[in-house]
Amino acid sequence: MTLRKLGNPGPLGLSSFALTTFVLSLHNGAMGQPFGTPPAIVLGLAFFYGGLCQLLAGMWEFAQNNTFGATAFSSFGGFWMSYAVIISPGFDVLPTLTDAGGTAKEHALGIFLLSWVIMTFIFFLATLRTNLGLCLLFAFLDITFILLCAGDWTGTPRVTKAGGYMGLFTALIAWYIAASDLINMENSFFTLPNPSLARGSAARHQLEDGKNEDGN
């Protein structure tokens, strides 16, 4: 039986994450529209591109035997779908929280974002020996979530705007990693570097293996 070879789902997952994050970050940073404008423009992206496409990329990463990629893409696909539900008028999530009065809505959104601060930090720890691009991506993403969480929890627009600016950098990093996977000497005239963070440890293991083979 001949097994069908799958393509690399990484660029799809990274691109869908990057574009959706970019649009929402422009909104959070009040760039091009007043602060507090309903984020309806990101709803379709959150459901289908950042949500569905990223979830599919995660499932295809499972087929590639890439546990980290599968978990990360699937998780953030779920994040975007859940965020779409929160801001969608049809689900009445925000109106229900607003009707609760007080700081119920702000604290509920803060709790939602805090959970993603924790999850993203776990992903960051899992990138420390992968490559520079992924490590920076999850570091900036975690800072973005921290700022957005603090902005919602305290009701401070300036902090939320700072989260929007940081989200733009995060989106650009994700696009860069996707481009570094897509652009190669077979389809272009140059490549984009993405330095490995595992070179030192890999070289050390090779040296140790060589010593063991020599019996020294």
How many helices? The count is 8
Q: Globular, elongated, flat, extended or rod-shaped: what is the shape? A: globular
| Oligomerization category of the chains in this entry | single chain
Task: Report the sheet-strand fraction.
Answer: under 5%
Q: Give the beta-strand count.
A: 0
Q: What is the averaged pLDDT score? A: 91
Helicity, as a percent range: over 70%
End-to-end span in angstroms? Answer: 45 Å
Cα radius of gyration in angstroms = 20 Å
Contiguous runs where pLDDT drops below 50 for at least 5 residues:
201-216
> Helix/strand-derived class?
mainly alpha
Q: What's the order of the H and E elements? A: HHHHHHHH
Please describe the biggest sheet, giving its number of strands, its sense, and whether it closes into a barrel.
Answer: none
Layout of SSEs?
Elements: H1 10-28, H2 43-63, H3 67-87, H4 93-99, H5 104-125, H6 132-154, H7 157-182, H8 199-214
Helix pairs in contact: 1-2, 1-3, 1-7, 2-3, 5-6, 6-7
